[in-house]
Design a protein that fits this description.
With 204 residues, this protein is an alpha/beta fold. The protein has a single domain, classed as Dihydrofolate Reductase, subunit A, CATH 3.40.430.10. The chain contains six helices and eight strands; from the N terminus they run E-H-E-H-H-E-H-E-H-E-H-E-E-E.
């Protein structure tokens, strides 16, 4: 049985997923700017960490997370200890394994991601990694989406889904609305109705 591949993202109402907590976007940090913090809205993030078998990241997100997450062990203890697979055609294996972040491995292409999905273990969780996610969608490798949508419009920035992404049929399996306007939704990909995707560029 194939391991489940889950894409988990913070999104604006217009589909932007760039810089939710910081970064180069003019509105970086939009997940907390002027928004009441409601702990229940983020419970799914703790559940993800407890249930995941490994992280799957693109180059940009890996290079953002690797210097930071090891020093935030209270928040990311389980992530810091589980295997982390970086999909990149430009990074070297030495660069990936030599950051000091525990148990990091390099994957060169989507065929290696497919092989990882066929291996034993818990779900593969993809954080951020916009270009990688778009490649995974195009290759029909995504099984589930965990989306936290914020009542924010940015109108510019990296979006979760590419304009030329293949059509997908999704089944809503869980949802909740919170007092600060955040909406949580979990969707499964319905493969019997989804279009077969062409293989996209691998990683970032």
């Amino acid at each position: 049985m194939s391991r489940q591949l889950i894409v988990t993202e913070f999104l604006t109402l217009d589909g932007v997923m760039e810089a939710p907590g910081g970064g180069g976007h003019p509105q970086a940090g939009w997940t907390f700017q002027g928004l009441e913090f409601v702990p229940a809205a983020y419970e799914i993030k703790q559940t993800e960490q407890e249930e995941a078998g490994a992280l799957l990241l693109g180059r940009v997100s890996f290079e953002e997370f690797a210097p930071v997450w090891p020093g935030m062990d209270e928040e990311f203890r389980l992530y810091n200890r589980m295997p982390k697979h970086v999909v990149s055609t430009t990074l070297s294996a030495e660069r990936v394994s030599g950051t000091g972040w525990e148990s990091c491995h390099l994957l060169r292409d989507l065929e290696e991601v497919r092989a990882l999905k066929r291996s034993e273990g818990g779900p593969l969780l993809v954080h951020r990694s916009a270009r990688l996610v778009q490649s995974l969608v195009a290759a029909d490798l995504v099984d589930r989406y965990h989306l936290l949508t914020f009542p924010v419009l940015l109108c510019a920035g990296k979006r979760l889904f590419a304009a030329d992404a293949p059509a997908q049929r999704l089944e809503l399996v869980r949802s909740a609305d919170f007092s600060n306007g955040v909406r949580m939704a979990v969707y499964d990909v319905r493969r019997e109705a989804a279009s077969a995707g062409a293989r996209g560029p691998a990683g970032t």
